[in-house]
Write the structure tokens for this entry.
Amino acid sequence: MWSSFVILLRRNLSTAVTAVTAVTSPSESSIIKLFLSDLHNERNLDTLIRNFKTASHSHRFRAKHGIYERTVRRLASADRFQSIHEILQYQKQFNDFSKEGFSARIITLYGKSGMFDNAHKLFDEIPQRTVLSLNALFSAYLHSKKFDMVLSLFNTLLVELYAKGRFEDGEKIWNQMEGKSVTPDVKSYNAKLVGMVVVKKTNDAVGLYEKIKNEGVKPNLFSFNALIKGFVNEGDLDEAKKWYSEIASTDFDPNVETFATLLPFLCEKDDLNAAFQVSKDIFNTRCRFGPRGSLLQQVVDVLVSNSMISEAEEIVKLGKASSHFRYKLNLPEG
């Protein structure tokens, strides 16, 4: 029976997969020994690839990290990169692939063979991208000499985790970044600011903002918008207005997100003078897009309902006269 199986394995007949799947544990050792012989002696790489895929049906074979690495190395030395992709993709059908350790190993193998794009694509397909898979892709970056992409990788994860309220997971990735001596940039810090805002730690976010400046990283409009949103979410009118005013001391103009966050809050808090001033600021910005007309109409309606007719009329006129942002606003009957 074993000799028959050897023939099937050697020739990669269609029944070989069934034979491998059905073998008992002692025979699995023979499968591994047989393939190791192939790995050293088989000159036909197409045959080697077929036999690798056939042997992959053995769980013990799949558990042998060294065999995978040596096979990938041999194929890479022969510039058979598509074949590497073929055999690694073949592993997706096995339950092992759903385990993070196994998928992380495949990511690392892609990296070691210089197939960075494949490594990153596989990383993106993993539902739970944790520290283990991150380290695997980090290794892939290094082997592929994509050093400039390492920070981008960390930032992608930080944005994703912090924005979804997974603050502790975000902190683990942040610690990993520091542990690998990767220097955070403004995008990294902004992701963390958002994370603090999501979990309602806006005062801590202010401390981080000060740290950013002290470390020589220049905050940007995204930084200010995060703080404004944080204080709006926590109902702190004075702090929200303060951080809006801070924008004026920078080279930035408020943008759509700034106005969409702050204006409804000012109306809700009945700070109509501030709402009026902020509305006028819209027409003095250099932003490419203005906020929705319905947002300004809301301000106009609230001003009229509170007998601030002249202020409402001014906003309506600005909307009609502006060459940059033209709004068709209606002055309701008071």
Notes: Residues 1-26 have pLDDT under 50 and may be disordered. The chain has 20 helices and no strands. The CA atoms of residues 31 and 150 lie 39 Å apart.
